[in-house]
Amino acid sequence: MSALATANTRLLALCDAASARGDALAALRRAGREAFAASGLPETSREEWRYTSLAALAAQEFALANAAAPRVVGAGAELISLRESPSAAPALGDLIDLKLHPLAALATALLDDGILIRVPAGATIAEPIRLAFVSSSSERPGLSTPRVRIEAGRGSRVAIVQEHTSSGARGTHFTNAISEVVVGANAHVELTLVQRENDDTFHASNTAVRLARDARFTSRVVTLGGRLTRNDLAVVLAEEGAECALDGLYLGTGERVVDNHSLVDHAVPHGTSRQLYKGVLAGSSRGVFRGRVIVRPGAQKTNASQSNPNLLLADGAEIDSKPQLEIYADDVKCSHGTAIGRLDENALFYLRSRALDEREARALLTQGFAAQVLNVLPSEALRDALSAEFAQRVSGEVRA
Amino acid sequence: MTTMTATNKPLLEIRGLAARVAEKPILRGIDLTIRPGEVHAIMGPNGSGKSTLAGVLSGRPSFEVTAGSVLYDGNDLLALKPEERAREGVFLAFQYPVEIPGVTNNYFFKAALNALRKHRGQDPLDAMDFLALSREKMKIVGMKPEMMSRAVNEGFSGGEKKRNEVLQMLLLEPRLAILDETDSGLDIDALRVVANGVNHLRSAGRAMLVITHYQRLLEYIVPDFVHVLADGRIAHSGGKELALELEAKGYGWLEKEPPAAAVAAR
Q1: B227/B39 Cα distance (integer angstroms)
Q2: What is the ipTM of this complex?
Q3: Is B149 on the interface with A (CB under 8 A)?
Q4: Chain A partners within 8 Å of B110 (Cβ)
C-alpha cells in the first residue's frame, strides 16, 4: 500500500469513530465520510494539488483533538453552537462541493462542533469579532476541524478575525478548517484569516463565500507559520453588483510550504473582484499561488483583477504562480499579473547610505513589501501584532 | 571663510581617483581636497562623471574604483561600507531619491538617526523626542507634518522628493554632505527652499560638495570653490565667478581655452 493509502485507511477509521455520535450533524458527517472515502487524500496527479504533496501529512498518525472550543471575543452578533442548534444544520455545507475538496470532505466527516455567527439585517457590528483557535497535541499529533459559518443579513456589516495559533512552539498538529460565508444583499463582511501556528503544523483551510446582490466581501489571508499550509478560498458573485477584494500575504521560511488557491466565480453581470496576494519566500521554502477567475457566459461588465507579486529572499526558495482566467463573456475588464523578484539593489543602497546595515535594510524593505497587506488589517492591535511577528520571523532570514 | 580654513586639516582628500561602471571607465584621475567649512561645487556637462563621483564617495556597489585613493578625516574611505561611511558623517542627497513602499518616512528617518546615534555612543531618541525634532527640521524645508506618515518618497512630486532629501540631511547632520543635482527639476520656489535647508547646515565643521548642472543653484548656495569636470577629470577650478562664466559660455569652450576665472586644476 502506498503511504497515502495507508493514511486514508487510518483517517477513515477516525471518521467511523466520529460518525458513531448521533447528533444534529450526523447526516453532514456521513456525507463527508462518503466523499472522503471516494477521494482519499489528494495526490499530486490532481491539477489542484500538482505543486503540493501531502506525503509528509500522510506519514502522521493523528488523533482527534477537537476539544478546545474557540475563544470568542465580540458582541452584537448571534453566536450559535452548530451542534446545539439543529435548525442551523440544514444549510451547513451548501457552499462546498465535497467531491472536489477531499480535505473539506475529511473535515466534514470529522465535524464535532462549529460556530454560527448570525448578523441581523441592518446591524453594524462595531468591533471585529475575534475567533481564536489554539491547536494542541498530546501523545499523538492532534487533528482538529474548526468550522465557522457566517450569515450576514441584508445591509449588515461585520468584521471577523479568525486566528489559528499553537499551544506550543513544537508539536505536530493538523488543522483542517472550513469557513462558510453567506453575505446578504448590500451587506459587507470582512474576514481575516491568520495562520501563525508552529512550524510543525499542517494547516488546511477551505473558505467558501456566496455574495448576494450588491454584497461586499473583503478577505485577508495571512500565513506566517505552519509546516505546510493550504488555503482554498472560493467566492461566488451570485447576484449583480457584488464586489470582493481578496488580499493575501504568505511568508515561507526554512522548509515550509504555503499554497494558496483562490477561485472567483463571476456568475452574473456587473461584478467586481480584486485580488492581491503577496509572497515572501526565504530559505528553501516554497510558495504556490493558483488564482482562478471564471467569468460565466453573460456575466458582462465584469471587472476582475488579480496580482501576485513575490519576493524571493534566497536562492533555494521557490514560487509556483499560476494565474488562470477563464472568460466566457465579451464585454469585461480582466487583468492579471505575476511578479517574482528580489530586493531592489537601488533601494538597498538608499537605506544603507542612511546608516542602516545591510541586514536591517533587507529586513526593512521586506517589511515594506508586506505592509501593503498588513496595513489594511481591521484593527490596529492586529496590525501591530502581525507586523511585529512578520518582522521577527523575517529578521532571522535576511543575510548581509 | 577660505582663508580661515586654509590651515584646517583636510576632511576629504581625493588623489588620482579612477572608477568605472559596468566596465566603462568614467572617472579618469580626480584630485580634490576639501576642508571643513568649505563648500565646493562640481559642474560639468552630462556624462562628465559628476554622479559617478558622488556614487563612489558614498559607496554605491555598482561603481568600481580602479585607481587612486580617498582619505576621509585621514582614513581610507573606500574601505568602508556605505552604512559605515554614513555613520562617519558622509551623506549623499540622491539625484533620484528612491521610493520605499510600505516604509514610512517617520520609521525610516528614526531608524537612520538612531543608527547614527548608536555609533556615536548616544541613546536612541524615543518616538516623542524624534517627533519634536522632525517637526522642527520639517519647518526649515517647508514640509507638512503629515509627510512623516507617508511611505518614503512614494508618490512624492519631484520637489517633495528633493525636500525630503534635505530633511534627512538636516536630521542626520553630516560632516560631509554631497548633493547630487539636488536642484534639477525644481522650480525657483522649491529651489529657494532646498537651498535654504542646505545653507542652514553650513558651518565651520561641515563641508559640502554640491554637484550641479546649472549655475542657478549657486546663486543660492554660494560656493567657495567651483570645479569643472570634463571627461572624468577636473579640467578647471576657480572661485564662484567661474560658475557665472560657465553659465554664459556653456561647456563647449572648455577644451579650447581656459576660462579667465579659472586657476590651474589642483
Answers
A1: 11
A2: 0.93
A3: no
A4: none
